[in-house]
Every structure is written in C-alpha cells, then in structure tokens.
UniProtKB/TrEMBL annotation:
Its main location: secreted. This is Subtilisin-like protease SBT2.4. InterPro entries: Peptidase_S8/S53_dom, Peptidase_S8/S53_dom_sf, Peptidase_S8_Asp-AS, Peptidase_S8_His-AS, Peptidase_S8_Ser-AS, Peptidase_S8_subtilisin-rel, Peptidases_S8_3, S8pro/Inhibitor_I9. Gene3D superfamilies: 2.60.40.2310, 3.50.30.30, Peptidase S8 propeptide/proteinase inhibitor I9, Peptidase S8/S53 domain. The active site is at D159, H234, S599. SUPFAM superfamilies: Protease propeptides/inhibitors, Subtilisin-like. It comes from the Eukaryota.
Length: 818
C-alpha cells in the first residue's frame, strides 16, 4: 500500500473549492458562465485588432455589456442573481452567481449559446537551463549569453500573482531593455503589498480578478489580498521558471544551492492573478485570459485550470477551452499544464489541439540524504537539511518517539501524539533533547492532518539533535520530496530501509516486560542532504504527470488528438517563492522553493516558446508548436528510451506518446526544425465540425462559427502528430509541411508502423524549396485488431541534417472498414 501526504510538494495539493455560500428558494447558488451570440470586441468588424481607446471599441464593448444586463433583467427574478463579469474581448458573455433554476431559465433564453457551471480552478503543481543546454545553445544565438534571451517578448501568467520584490523579477538599470513592446497594452493595478512601483519594466503589467472568488467564499484578508501580490508562491514560482532574471542566487536557511535563471530571462512578465489561497474559480481564470488577450501578450502560461472534464459538453467546447481557442486565434501561443493525476490513463486535463499540454519529467539532479547508524550501516533518504553536529565524528542517541512519551500526561493516545512527533507536550524532554528521534509516517499523515512543519516545531521546542521520519510498515512506502528543514532531518520512505533502522534500534534498546524502554544504546547521525548529485537517469516521466489518451467527453471516449503534447522538466525545480506561503507552512519565510508538478513543466515550454518567437518573429503559434514537437527526443541522457514512473513506488516502464507526447523538449533543435506543420483558427473549426460526437449546432453555439467546411477525418487536422482512436480497415491521413529553412532540402520519408498496422507514405522522398510546402499522404492499414493503442512514428530525414519526427498512436479495431 502506498500513500501521499504533506511531505509532497505543497502545490500538488487540491485547493478547497467552495462553491456554495448563499441559498435562495432552498437552492444552493453557484457560478455559471454564459456565452451569447454576437461577436466580441476582438472579432468585431473586419476582425483586425482594435485600439482599446477608440470610440468604436468602447461603443461595441458598451453594447455587449448592456445586452448582458438586459438579458439578466428580463430572464431572471430580481434579487436572484449577481453578475460577476461581462466577457467582451474574446468571448461575448458573462458570469453570474445564481441558482440552478435561474440558470435553467438562462439556457432557454434567446441568444444564449452555452451555460456552463463553474468547476473551480486548481494549481497544477535552477538547474534546468543547463540541463536543457540553453547557455551553450539557444542563448548564444540571441546575443551571446543570457543578456538578450527573450528580449521583446511578453509572457502572460494566469496564476496566484507575483512577489514583486523578489530578485528574479528585479529591473537592472545597468542592463536596460532595448526592444520596445508597443504591441502590448497592459497596465498595473495596485493594492495591498503591490504599490505602483511593482511594475518596474521587468513586470510590465499586473492585474487581479476576484469577483468569482468573492462570490463563492468569504475571503481571508490576511492572505487573500485583492491585488496582484502572490501570497501562495505558486505564481511567482511559475513566472520565474519561464522568465526570471538570470543568475539569481538561491539561498535557503543560509545554504547556497546555486543560481536560478528563467528559460527566457529577458522576457517581460504580465501577471493576471485569478487564484487565491482560499478559493479558485474558473470564472476568474476565464476573465483573466480574456484580459491577457486584450493586452496583447505573446505567450500565455496556464499552470492553473479545471481539474476535471466538463459535465454537459465536449472537452473541446468548455468555456475554458473556447477561451484558449480565441486566444490562439489572436496569435497567442497558449501553453497549459497536462495535470497532476498520473499515472492513470486518460487523466489529462489538457484536451484541445490549440493549446500545448505539457507533461512533467525529472532532471538528472537529485538531493541524496542519509542516516548513519551506530553499527556502520548507512540508509538513504530524502531531506534538504544540514548534518547533525559533528557528523563523521559524533553519533547521537537514537530514540523512537513512542518509547519516549511522558510517563504522565493528559494527551490523547493517538498516532499524531504517540508516534508522529506532532505535539511537543507528548514527549519526555529529558530524553529527546540532543537525541535523533524516529517519528513515524502514520494515520495522521495519510489523513493529511499531520505535517512535517509540526515535526520541525517539535524538534525546535524540545531540542532534538535531528529527526528521522520513517514509513510505517503497516501502511507501506510513502512518496517523499525534498523540502528544506530548519533542523537536521531526513525522511526514509522505503519500508525495507525502515526495517533495517528499526531492527538495529530494537537490538540496542532495553525494555522491561511491559515494553517500556529503560536504556537507549542505539546511535545515529544524519548526513548532509543539501548537496546535489548529477548522476540520475533522466529525463523520466514523473509519476504524478497526467497521461493520455485524450478524450472528447466525460465518458472518456478517446479522440484523434495526442495529449500530452510535450515533456519538460517539472520535478524538483528551484524557483522564486513568496515568504507568506499561505498554503504550505513548511516554506514560510523562504524566497525560493523546490517544487514538482506539471505546473513547473509548463513555464519551461513557455520560456522556450518565447525564445523561438524572438528568433523567428513571424512564426505563428502552430509553427512554434510544431517546431517544439517535431524536434523532441524519445531518449534520455544515456541514449536509452525515456522511462515513465508507474503506479507502484519505484516501478517504471518504457514511455509512450501518452506519457511524453512527442518526447522531451529540445530547445536548440526547435530553433531550426527544418519543416513545420501549420494550422489556424479555421482549421480548428473544421476539426470540431468533423467530430461525429459533436453536433454542428453545438459547435456553432460554442464558437459562433458555422460548419461550412469539415475535414475528411478528424485526424486530418495538420498537427505534428497522428492519432487514430478507432481504426477500421485503413485510413489515409494527410500532413502538409512548410520549409522554414533558408535553403532547398531533400527529405527521405520513413515510417515505423505501430503493432497491428502497416504504414505507407507517399511520396517516399521530396525536395522542398524555402517557404515551399509539401503534402504527405500517410496510409495506415490494420493487419491485426489489437486490444489497445499501439505506437510508431514517421521520420523525415533531411539532406541538411534536419530530422522531423511525427509520433503515431493508433488503436487498430478491425481489419474491415465496417
């Protein structure tokens, strides 16, 4: 049996989403997002970007808001609702706090296209520039070093805000920005802990969205600041990974861990705070996306989002996904966390082909810790702490918490008191002072009521020399991630190792007949746990990273789109933090945190996209997506096939595209991919219209577009991957490539056929001129029905050393077309 507890990275946890606070007519109120007919401002007129200060813009925006108010007044009972937002930039609609019966009236009202219940929003929770080869590769192409990487690009972050005083976001007057960002129209909103000076040139815009949060919860003024300030830390962490300043010293508890740099350290940062410590709502997130598109960000980073598929509509047609579609239509590269529900199949929360879904992997950096026993045995563990006093020369008394309880006391005889070291009043101070104390990962940790923070507090109050948090053999192994400890400490999550410790301890401890310990002769010392090792196999797909296949509705019917799209570092990432650390007391007071999750992988890709956009300013989002995908690698640093962590702790298996998408991101190769596959807004509409599970009227209601054009097959959307979710007989799929190189090039085409199929390509080779295009026909024929997806790839090998890879994912259902 395995368990997860508060020793995991804090932002892998689910925010408590409060969806009900008022009642009306015995009904519980909730937030509903309503989309209406008619073009939003961004699509009004000839579709060109409007000046937000123009009279045309203001007049149309006012007409939309007035129409929203009129609909509410005419359709709903007075006093039964509160309008939270009017969406008018990329969506025409509004968010309303009301009851289910009133929401039903909205569904039946004229000109209403879609009514969707707010599902809440969740956070999907350095060394990585070196691991990705940026200093020697991409950065050198952008001016010789990190001083120009990302210059002129604005990355938007919809998240928990930002800590504006952090050095990762400081402006250096000795190294001023040289590129103007006249295309960006953002501004700064001030508020608690966020004065006007917070927007300093590095942070170019900061806004917050709280109407949804305030409607469904009573916000805590001590942490739920109505300003762009980040009281959680997550938003600061994500922003610094993508665009944090280069070479910022990482110091925690007085120990220097190295220097942190963002992927695109010269990119500008635009902040859209939409998630609060108390609550996160999809309404606030959608409103933030709407504003980011209006402002004109180049890259939109979403390490937040709904944690489950929509209830009543297709995954592609939820309000959240439609908002991302219109952001993409506006020319914005949208990158989204794949989710932290792995390794279960079909656990991705990134569904749509117009957003890049990012999976999480490890790097080769680990922080090994150890505890040395008196008999010379050294046990491995996890913990970012210094050694016990005199390590290497001195051993200290080793005691088990449940053997050193106070002889008399009124405390409950429950695991948190007896064996988990949660309460100082339960332990005998005369015995534990100066000792290494064994605390046990028991019931309280599995119930998420016990914490590492409490152990550290107990250790400080009672003067432990150190602590060892061990797995409980009755529960099994637990998952441990390194967290900075203010005292010497280590976690030993493996039961086999724990049994070695406990066997030694029992041999050296004298107990009377009733089991009370009378003499402690066991000794131990905790080693240095803060020094990194760079010997691990990497990358490996993280256990928590959500997996494909992608699916089209809550019934999880697979669809012909590959998810996740790409794999990037997301395990044990150092980045900026907020000292308030409202959701994780263990990190209170720290300016940096070491976290894991697809939240951390996502900004890696956002920063890399910014570098590509800087180097190739005319490229569209789909071209950038293609470049990242087709140049990814399936192999780790040792040249072996990338592995993925399984459901059992310590288990792994060879990855498939449903674990890593196209593979592990390769920034240097993505700058010069040779060929790209391009698709635009009209192509996405044609894709939606070709899906048999979606009625054309539903597509029109969600997007406002008629199904005048459809694809022969949904798999013909020009993606840098091919997925066939239910192949019968044979199917011809087409892909069109564009040469983005400066010279003509000849490509040889080859295919590795998925099991149960034969793949034929036409043509088998072609020569393509700069900016020329070439269509490739891919015929996939079933030779044997299989009981699941099988995988292969198409490889185009160019005469100028470009290699273009297209992953194939096929479920061969039948050899017959019927």
């Amino acid at each position: 049996m395995t368990g997860r507890a508060n020793v995991m990275p804090p932002l892998c946890f689910t925010l408590l989403l409060v969806s009900v606070v008022f009642t009306s007519f015995a009904e519980e109120r909730a937030i509903y997002i309503v989309l209406m007919e008619g073009d939003p401002v961004a699509l009004y007129g000839d579709g060109r970007r409007l000046d937000v200060n123009s009279e045309v813009f203001k007049a149309h925006a006012k007409r939309l808001v007035d129409s929203h108010d009129q609909l509410l007044q005419s359709a709903l009972e007075t006093g039964s609702y509160s309008k939270l937002y009017s969406f008018k930039h990329i969506l025409n609609g509004f968010a309303v706090h009301t009851t289910p019966s009133q929401a039903q009236k909205l569904k039946e009202a004229p000109r209403v296209k879609l009514v969707e219940r707010d599902r809440g929003a969740k956070l999907m929770t350095t060394y990585t520039p070196q691991f990705l080869g940026l200093p020697q590769g991409v950065w050198t192409q952008e001016g010789g070093d990190d001083h120009n990487a990302g210059e002129g690009i604005v990355i938007g972050f919809v998240d928990t805000g930002i800590n504006p005083t952090h050095p990762s976001f400081a402006y250096d007057p000795l190294n001023p920005f040289t590129s103007n960002i006249s295309h960006f129209l953002g501004a700064c909103k001030t508020g608690p802990r966020f004065p006007a000076s917070s927007c300093n040139g590095k942070i170019v815009s900061a806004k917050f969205f709280s109407a949804g949060a305030q409607a469904v919860a009573t916000l805590n003024s001590t942490v739920d600041f109505l300003s762009p300030f980040d009281a959680v830390g997550h938003g600061s962490h994500v922003a610094s990974i993508a665009a944090g300043n280069a070479g910022v010293p990482v110091v925690v508890n007085g120990f220097y861990y190295g220097r942190a740099s963002g992927m695109a350290p010269r990119a500008r940062i635009a902040i859209y705070k939409a998630v609060y410590p108390t609550v996160g709502t999809l309404t606030d997130v959608v409103s933030a996306i709407d504003q980011a598109v209006l402002d004109g960000v180049d890259i939109l980073t979403l390490s937040v989002g709904p944690d489950e598929p929509p209830e009543d509509t297709a995954t592609f047609l939820s309000t959240f996904d439609i908002a991302m579609l219109f952001a993409r239509r506006a020319g914005i590269f949208v990158v989204q966390a794949a989710g932290n529900q792995g390794p279960a199949p079909s656990s991705v929360v990134s569904y749509s082909p117009w957003a890049v879904g990012v999976a999480s992997s490890s790097t080769d950096r680990t922080y090994p810790g150890s505890v040395l026993l008196g008999n010379g045995t050294k046990i491995e563990g996890v913990g970012l702490s210094g050694p016990t006093f005199g390590y290497g020369l001195l051993l200290h008394k080793l005691v088990l918490a449940k053997d050193v309880l106070k002889a008399s006391g009124s405390f409950p005889r429950t695991p948190p008191y007896v064996e988990e070291c949660q309460y100082p009043e339960a332990l005998d101070p005369n015995v534990v002072q100066g000792s290494v104390v064994i605390c046990t990962f028991s019931e309280g940790f599995y119930n998420r009521t016990s914490t590492i923070t409490a152990i550290i507090n107990t250790a400080k109050v009672l003067g432990f020399m150190g602590f060892v948090l061990v797995a409980n053999p009755n529960y099994g192994d637990f998952i441990a991630e390194p967290i900075p400890f203010g005292v010497s400490g280590i976690m030993v999550p493996n039961v086999t190792n724990v049994q070695v410790i406990l066997q030694y301890y029992e041999q050296e401890t004298c107990k009377e007949e009733k089991g009370f310990a009378t003499r402690f002769a066991a000794k131990a010392a905790i080693g240095e746990g803060r020094v990194a090792s760079f010997m691990g196999q990497a990358p490996v797909v993280s256990r928590l990273s959500s997996r494909g296949p992608d699916f089209i509705n809550s019934s999880r019917i697979p669809c012909d789109v590959l998810k996740p799209d790409i794999l990037a570092p997301g395990h044990q990432i150092w980045a900026a933090w907020s000292p308030i650390s409202a959701l994780e007391p263990t990190l209170t007071g720290y300016n940096f945190a070491l976290l894991s999750g697809t939240s951390m992988a996502t900004p890696h890709v956002a920063g890399i996209a910014a570098l590509i956009k800087q180097y190739n300013p005319s490229w569209t989002p789909s071209m950038i997506t293609s470049a990242i995908s087709t140049t990814a690698t399936k192999y780790d640093g040792d040249g072996e096939f990338i592995m993925a962590e399984g459901s059992d702790i310590g288990s792994s298996y060879p990855s498939t595209p449903f674990d890593f998408g196209a593979g592990f991101v390769s920034p240097s190769r993505a700058m010069d991919p040779g060929l790209v596959l391009s698709s635009g807004y009209e192509d996405y509409i044609s894709f939606l219209c070709s899906l048999p599970e979606i009625n054309p009227a539903t597509t029109r209601n969600a997007t406002g577009e008629l199904c005048n054009n459809t694809l022969d097959h949904p798999a013909n959307l020009n993606l840098p991957s091919v997925t066939l979710s239910a192949l019968k007989g044979s199917q011809i799929v087409r892909r069109t490539f564009t040469n983005v190189g400066s010279k003509p090039e000849t490509y040889l085409c080859s295919a590795l056929s998925p099991n149960g199929t034969i793949v034929d390509l036409c043509p088998t080779w072609f020569r393509i001129a700069p900016q020329g295009s070439q269509e490739l026909h891919i015929q996939v024929k079933v030779t044997q029905a299989m009981d699941g997806f099988t995988f292969g790839e198409i490889v185009l090998t160019g005469s100028l050393n470009h290699i273009v890879r297209i992953p194939l994912s096929v479920f061969p259902v039948s050899t017959s077309n019927t």
